[in-house]
Amino acid sequence: MAWRRLVGAAGLSVLVAQAACSTRPAEERAERDLEVGHAHSRGLRVDVEHGLAVVLEIREAADGDGRLSLWSSAPSQRFTLKRGDDAPTGWRLTVSNVMRDSELRVVGGDATVTAEEGDHATEQVYDLELNSPEVSFELMAPEARQRGPFSFALLSDVQEAIDRVQDIFARINQEPVAFMLGAGDLTQQGTDEQLSRYKRELRQLNVPYYTTLGNHELGKSPTLWHDYFGRASFHFDFRGAAFSLIDSGSATVDPLVYDRLDGWLGEHTSDVHIVAMHIPPLDPIGVRNGAFSSRNEAAKLLGRLARGHVDLTLYGHIHSYYDFENGGIPAYISGGGGAIPERFDNIGRHFLVIEVDPDAGVRNVRTVRVD
User: Fold this and answer.
1) Helices marked H in 173-285
2) Pair 42, 107 in one domain
3) What is the pLDDT of residues 18-43, one digit of tens each?
């Protein structure tokens, strides 16, 4: 009997440990977010402020100069390059997913910057001569500094429809939007091949795509996303408005991300603030598995957003279109990137165009049907 009690206690301990682990399914991604934008190789240290760009490559070329590649997650960013004694002074910098007319300028240290032409609309190339051991740069489009009205697009849930996404991108290129926001599920399983393919297709888009991940990006590896698109939860400002993208791909938000969100909300209580994530806290019709796994957590998150005076919430995950309110906040679900649609809704593939005025709020949300 004593032996049975011992086994029972040990078994209970295992179950408790497993339950403790399962209560934070997004913990690894929240911790991995903090590593994005920081890298060291070939004697060069790269640090991107707030992790708003992922370092794709640091290498030494055959000509002896260095090659550095970044993928941007925001309209503006700052980063610092620290060169060791054994590192080249000359570096070719390629920054992808940037706004047109973005300018790179030195804000600390000494460097010579020569701009080159990129291969497509959202790529910029620079030849850098690092004349001091540490140089800080700012990359920003001039319009990003100017407070005023603007529009952006929202597109989510492409998944297996990647072969048809080109006409959506072509249609977005016809809209006067500054950038496109994404609420996840770009791919079917988040594999290297699928993430690389999506990036290749984005070369047809004339504006950058700032996006969080969805549950479909978790199929291969919980953190493979970070190697391609950077942080899953991040924040940026544009023309007087604030944007917070939150990782809800596991139908929950990790406590580490809540801490960051609290900071973002506190900084922008008087500003227009837009929050986007993949899985909505609450399903507007309540009959699908299309919401957070805990209603208590859903209420907790929506209470935070309401107290933080958030102006608009945007979601994906449900392959349809819904216009509703949660916690008194206007909310839209737009999962029209081409993934298998809900039956009989007749929405088809679509994206949203959202007009924002930092002095008047969110002025209009328009649905653009592609099919």
Assistant:
1) 192-202, 224-229, 255-267
2) yes
3) 334 568 999 999 999 999 999 999 89
Are residues 116 and 212 located together in one domain of the fold? no
213, 220 Cβ separation under 8 angstroms? no
**DSSP tag of 340:** P
pLDDT for residue 13 is more than 80: no
Give me the domain span that covers residue 40: 36-143
A 10 A CB-CB count for 5 gives: 9
Q: What is the H or E stretch that residue 277 is in? A: strand 272-277
pLDDT of residue 110: 98
Judge if 313 and 363 occupy the same domain. yes
Residues 266 and 154 placed together within one structural domain of the fold:
yes
Q: Does residue 78 register a pLDDT over 90? A: yes
Is 22 part of a structural domain of the chain? no
pLDDT digits (tens, 9 = 90+) for 242-266: 999 999 999 999 999 999 999 999 9
Residues 225 and 300 in one domain: yes
Task: Give bridge partners of residue 80 from the DSSP assignment.
Answer: 47, 136
For residues 338-360, average pLDDT: 92
**Among 125, 143, 161, which residue terminates a domain?**
143
Q: Are residues 136 and 171 in the same domain?
A: no
Query: What pLDDT shows up at residue 22?
Result: 60
Q: Give the count of beta carbons closer than 10 Å to the beta carbon of residue 229.
A: 24
- Name the strand (E) or helix (H) holding 297: helix 295-307
In degrees, rounded to 5, the angle at the alpha carbon of residue 79 between the alpha carbons of residues 77 and 85 is 165
* Same domain membership, residue 104 and residue 252: no
More confident residue, 222 or 354: 354
| Domain contains 2 | no
Report whether pLDDT(220) > 80.
Answer: no
Q: Which residue has the tokens 């969080």?
A: 212
When pLDDT is cut at 50, 70 and 90, the band that residue 91 belongs to is very high
Give the count of domains, the chain.
2
210 inside domain: yes
User: What is the helix (H) or strand (E) element at residue 28, kind and residue range?
Assistant: helix 27-33
As given in the structure block, the two tokens for residue 30 are 């929240």
Q: Does one domain contain both 100 and 159?
A: no
Q: What token pair was written down for 178? A: 């500054």
Full strand arrangement of the beta sheet holding 321-326: 234-238, 241-246, 272-277, 312-315, 329-334, 321-326
